[in-house]
From TrEMBL:
Keywords: Oxidoreductase
Family: Belongs to the short-chain dehydrogenases/reductases (SDR) family.
UniProt-recorded name of the protein: Oxidoreductase, short chain dehydrogenase/reductase family
An MF annotation (GO) of this entry: oxidoreductase activity
One Pfam family it belongs to: adh_short
Regions that span the bilayer: none
InterPro entries in UniProt: NAD(P)-bd_dom_sf (IPR036291), SDR_fam (IPR002347)
PANTHER family: BLL7251 PROTEIN, RETINOL DEHYDROGENASE-RELATED
Record carries keyword Oxidoreductase: yes
Length: 261
């Protein structure tokens, strides 16, 4: 899908990857870029930078998603591209994770995407065109040492994106799933841990890769190219890959335990 002239909505746009996406789409001459985030001051600052509108949105609240889409439709006449970008991370001791902590991760990292699709997809299907972008993680293709909640929810996002592409791809709906390793954002401010094994990249690098993927209608976006090799190895020798991850865990175990504490 050509980005120029398209109407774009982005969640989690106050900082990090979301902000970089907002700036990148604006620079690529999108017709409109609607920035949304739970951080009012942050999203208003981004909106001012790209001369657009900022909408305060709690993505874990389905009614907020409905309002975001309605306001975007009212202001722009519709949404061509939706970047569902919000996510949170956590390190935890599996045996001590509460149901409340599980629900927080599921609501933020999975249900937010489901709410978006539920309410934006119908207009795209009616038009016969639209594009959905999901920010997952390399952890959604591999695993996140020290965080079962992050691993499980990010795997679920990849599965959701795959299913949507399979189901609606021939109905004019494009889908991209973004799976970076460590990106310099608020989430990695205290250090990237094992996720930074192949280096920390800037959010702008991710945004550039996303726009290229949209233009080429490419499903999987892996800003860290090493991830593709890891996937190939995992597919060719699953047990060997698990052995390797166990060895990697032993290497980083002290750092992981320090974070969990």
């Amino acid at each position: 899908m050509k980005v120029k002239g398209k109407r774009v909505a982005i969640t989690g746009a106050a900082s990090g990857i979301g902000k970089a996406l907002a700036v990148a789409f604006h620079s690529a001459n999108a017709a409109a870029v609607i920035a949304s985030d739970i951080n009012k001051a942050g999203v208003q600052a981004v909106a001012a930078e790209i001369k657009s509108e900022g909408i305060v949105t709690d993505v874990t609240n389905e009614e907020d998603i409905i309002r975001l889409i309605k306001e975007s439709n009212d202001n722009c006449g519709g949404i061509d591209i939706f970047c569902s970008n919000v996510g949170i991370g956590a390190y935890e001791d599996f045996l001590k994770i509460t149901n409340t902590e599980w629900r927080k991760m599921l609501d933020t990292n999975l249900m937010s995407h489901i709410y978006v699709v539920r309410h934006v997809l119908p207009q795209m299907l009616d038009r016969g065109s639209g594009y959905l972008i999901f920010t997952s993680s390399a952890a959604g293709l591999l695993s996140q040492l020290g965080s079962v909640t992050y691993s499980v929810t990010k795997h679920a996002v990849v599965s959701l994106a795959e299913w949507l592409k399979i189901t609606y791809g021939k109905m004019g709906i494009g889908v991209s799933c973004v799976c970076p390793q460590a990106v310099r954002t608020a989430m990695t401010a205290q250090g990237a841990g094992v996720a930074g094994i192949d280096g920390m990249i800037e959010p702008e690098v991710v945004a550039d890769d996303v726009l290229e993927a949209v233009e080429n209608e490419q499903f999987l976006v892996t800003p860290h190219k090493e991830v593709l090799e890891y996937i190939k190895y995992k597919a060719s020798d699953y047990d060997g890959w698990i052995d390797g991850m166990q060895n990697l865990q032993e290497k980083f175990i002290d750092e992981i335990n320090d974070i969990i504490k």
